[in-house]
Specification:
The chain is an alpha/beta fold and 241 residues long. The protein has a single domain, classed as Flavodoxin domain (Rossmann fold, 3-Layer(aba) Sandwich). It has 8 helices and 8 strands. The strands form 2 sheets. Strands 1, 4, 5, 6, 7 and 8 form a 6-stranded parallel sheet that branches. A two-stranded antiparallel ribbon has the order 2-3. α5 links the parallel β5 and β6. α3 crosses α8. It is globular and about 45 Å long. Bound molecules: flavin mononucleotide.
Length: 241
């Protein structure tokens, strides 16, 4: 656990160094980064759990059909106040998940907490997430995940939280057998990259193939979609999609 705190502290220091010259506040190493927005957060999403199958663009549907693969993009993402992007209405990871869905024709499923206890303000969210990580919590997710037997390939994405997957992903891993499938991790982050998502996914699923993951800066997902679109396209092409 100390390692996670250390990782996050390193991340905050790195981020603060990178932010030199910008107007972003400089996070102190002893605390979670201070959000730059002072706006009121948006209300928590009241959407029911379990995002329905994405309405596929005709080309995307054809892409999936042509590949002969049944692909799912499973992701967790938060709106509200997020690091260096202010108050957002679509989560950084959700943006990347949708790009992957559009490019591959995959179905999308958003993991939502059963009891959404996550604050919509950044500092408070980091506190709750750190407590969950320290306790090894397994927060329940809402609803039922899709029937995984229909999928060969599953992209799994989340924000990096304190140098690791948010704990709710471990709830998913521990309750969802995925033997024999190809799993492809992706993260959004503020400096920590993939942060070992691939290794922890391989540890959770030793009988799956874990393919090369993608790490996207959350600020790019929110503010630089063309750059992210290119990165996603290159990565998918490298993976053979
Ligand atoms: C609780 C919490 C912990 C975070 N920990 C890290 C971290 O350890 N390393 C990092 O690079 N970014 C960290 N971040 C920044 C997020 O990974 C980043 O803002 C991400 O893009 C948010 O994605 P989302 O909008 O899909 O939730 C953290 C953010 C939160 C809210």
């Amino acid at each position: 656990m100390k390692r996670a705190v250390l990782l996050f502290l390193v991340f905050t220091v790195l981020v603060s160094l990178c932010a030199c010259g910008s107007t972003a506040p400089q996070p102190a190493p002893s605390q979670a980064p201070v959000p730059e927005s002072t706006q009121e957060p948006v209300s928590p999403s009241e959407e029911a759990a379990g995002t329905e199958k994405a309405a596929k663009e005709p080309e995307a549907a054809e892409a999936q059909e042509a590949s002969g693969m049944n692909i799912l993009v499973l992701y967790f993402s938060r709106t509200g106040e997020q690091y260096q992007v202010g108050v957002i209405e679509k989560g950084n990871t959700a943006i990347v998940a949708e790009m992957i869905g559009e490019a591959t024709g995959a179905d999308l499923y958003e993991i939502l907490p059963a009891d959404d206890h996550y604050p919509m303000t950044y500092k408070e969210l980091t506190d709750v997430a750190l407590q969950e990580q320290r306790k090894g919590s397994r927060p329940a997710y809402a609803g039922e995940l899709p029937d995984m037997s229909g999928y060969d390939t599953i992209f799994i994405g989340a924000p990096v939280w304190w140098g690791d997957w948010p704990m709710i992903l471990y709830t998913v891993f521990e309750s969802t057998p995925l033997s024999g499938k190809t799993l492809i991790p992706f993260s959004t982050h503020a400096g920590s990259g993939l942060s070992g998502f691939d290794r922890s996914l391989a540890a959770a699923y030793p009988d799956c193939t874990v393919a090369k993951g993608l790490a996207v800066a959350g600020t790019d997902a929110q503010n630089n979609p063309d750059k992210v679109q290119t990165a996603v396209a290159n990565w998918l092409s490298e993976l053979g999609f």
